[in-house]
Amino acid sequence: MKKFYLMLLLAVGMLVLAACSSGDEEASGGSGSEGSSGTDTITAWAWDPAFNIAALEKAKEAYNGDGEFEVEIIENAQDDIIQKLNTGLSSGTTKGMPNIVLIEDYRAQSFLQAYPDAFHPLTDVIEASDFAEYKIATTSHEGEQYGLPFDSGVAALYVRTDYLEEAGYTVEDVTNITWDEYIEIGKKVKETTGKNMLTLDPNDLAQVRMMIQTNGSWYVDEDGSTPNLADNETLAKAFETYKKMMDADIAKIVSDWSQFVGAFNSGDVASVPTGNWITPSVKQGADQSGNWAVVPMPRLDMDGAVNASNLGGSSWYVLNVDGKEEAADFMLNTFGSNPDLYQTLVKDIGALGTYSPAAEGDAYAVEDEFFGGQQLITDLSTWTDEIPAVNYGLHTYAIEDILVTGMQDYLNGAELTTVLENVQGQAEAQLK
Amino acid sequence: MSQQSTKKGEMDLPVRLRYKETKREKTGVFFKKKVGWLFIIISVIAITIFNFYPMVQAFLLSFQSGMGGNLEYVGLENWKRLFGDPTFIAALTNTSIYLLIQVPLMIVLALFFSVLLNDPKLKFRGFFRIAIFLPCVTSLVAYSVIFKYLFGIDGIINQFLLNFGFIPETINFLADPFWAKVVIILAITWRWTGYNMIFYLAALQNVDKSIYEAARIDGANAFQQFFQITVPMLKPIILFTSITSTIGTLQIFDEIVNITNGGPGNATISISQYIYNLSFEYTPDFGYASTVSYVIVILVVILSIIQFRVAGERK
To answer: In sequence order, what are the residues at sequence separation of 6 or more whose Cβ sits closer than 8 angstroms to the Cβ of residue A50?
Structure first.
């Protein structure tokens, strides 16, 4: 019965509860909003202890500004951060809100537009041109720069060189190719080695997302909210390519993250096209050291498509609450202007930032034995600069849930134009 | 009122008690009432603040729409949007399927188990009762994850079916729109049957044994005893469990999110999950999310009335 009421009151009940519980947190965290001038503790929320939290710790150590404050780092799951921000910000109270928060790029616009006054602009604080261009569109709103671009989600094709060799291919043969060429290679690999070329998860269209960004396209128009599906040639091409991969029988079907990682760790697939943050997981298969190489992402066979794309990635935001000046100062003096910090991040955590001046450092030039001596970080940061900038807009996940159903219909034999018109209609009906 | 009733009562009371009783009532009625109110006032206030007030607010919210904090009144726009929203219709359809298949299945199973386990001649009764009740104490998330792995493509169910030759090749249960629903229904049934069984077992203890004895003497067989005695005697409990199970199934959330996350496509998405998605997964629209949550309220009310009409006694 308790659950019954909770469900009923979700919309409002959650707001009340969250406001109460985060109030407690603040009290225990001591990030007091008492004293308007000079806050002595600033709070930062992020997820993933091995990556973002670790990066914050390094930033805390590297801070060399004049501010006298403590930085308190609080780890939350990403879903929890989204919920807390939504409930906190929509209730209109700033109590219990952090000073700094990490937001995934796909979701950034929805926060910036849903809560216009909740974020502190960093336009005059950081130099936006120092960061990878593709990050700027998603982290800014109405001419103001709100986000400090953090990790690169540059996508790459991780390939098993030994399997390719067995099938008669070299690393050059898979470098800067189109998806169609990739599928042909995949067929040959399957024929000779019996291994699938890649994994696909029918419930996760990350593959389609990466494909369309190679041609600078997205699910929505430039305005970030009008669904652009029915007349989107790039999307149609990506759907066709996805179906070709399915029909060619070169994909192992997985349904969750652990199966996905398990597939390449156990040597079941010959390549992994995904974001560069997968590197640590690929390296878990220590016995495969030297058998891997990383090449640019395949592109769609269309004019204007490039061999660079993105998957995931997030950025730092400063909230418009007491302590925002201190928080902005902390951000500027760490992620905003310190190339040495980025060297540490690459060396100790394997986190690749999007701060361009950092690319000249030594840590970026290190040769990675696991990938046959490739200068992986240098390569990845070069590709980062080539990623076509798109406005992810407001509805990435909402539209993708609709597209997943459309993709099922298409794979089961429906006509592509009909499918895309259907999803367009559904998206327009749902996203009012 | 109390004065009058005291006077009426005086007639039957012995003279010795008469004076004493009136005095106690005179001073005590208000005191007693106050104490009574004090006992319930805390819960009344708490329920008003934490249940009724939010309900009213959520109702107002259901006529607003907008991103995050920028809500404005849109009248009946949300309700219009509801009926043209394919995801909502999918969620409503799925939830109805769960309801129509799972609740009757579970009620019948629970009834069946409780009658079996009520047999005094059964050995290890306690053990069986605990075994069937035990799923109920497991965490929703934990058991959902276990079901997900059981029915995974490399899971033990597939291995079992394959090794014994029941199926020619592995079934990807969770990626198939039909099988995914079956898995969800199996999971909820496993989790909640024992819970409902406990109510029936408790009710069966109150059924007079002599009724069955008389029935046996009259020559009623086991089926006749079950349908003519057990079921009518348990009617109020059956009504109660049907209503609570209906409400529970209408709000199903944890299992869906953890086993299939609504997939494949929207094949298993439930109304509650859609509310969650609208609030937290997509660009937040709390107004429309409240509209959808009020659909659950309306459904619960309608279904409860129907169930009362069908099963309840006419009074």
So the answer is: A280, A349
Inter-chain touch A114–B284, beta carbons under 8 Å: yes
Q: CB of B108 within 8 Å of any CB in chain A? A: no
CB-based contact A335:A353 (threshold 8 Å): yes
Q: What is the mean pLDDT of residues B138-166?
A: 90
Say whether both A210 and A253 belong to one domain.
Answer: yes
Does a structural domain hold residue A34? Answer: no
Instruction: For chain B, say whether A110 makes contact (Cβ under 8 Å).
Output: yes
- Residues B142-154: tens digit of each pLDDT: 999 999 989 988 8
* Spatial CA neighbour of B268 closest among B282, B288, B253, B246: B253
Count of domains observed in chain A: 2
> From the centroid of its chain, how far is CA A292?
23
ipTM, two decimals, is 0.75
Asked if A113's CB is within 8 angstroms of B280's CB, the reply is no
Average pLDDT value for residue range A17-46: 53
pLDDT of residue A13: 41
Interface membership of B140 toward A (CB under 8 Å): no
Say whether residue B298 is in contact with chain A using an 8 A CB cutoff: no
Rg (CA), chain A: 22
Q: Which of A223, A219, A225, A257 shows the shortest CA–CA distance to A238?
A: A219
In A285-336, where does DSSP find H-type helix? 324-332
Do A90 and A149 belong to one domain?
A: yes
Distance CA B137, CA A11 (A): 28
Domains of chain B in sequence order: 2-61 (no CATH), 77-311 (1.10.3720.10)
A297 φ/ψ angles, rounded to the nearest 5 degrees: -65, 135
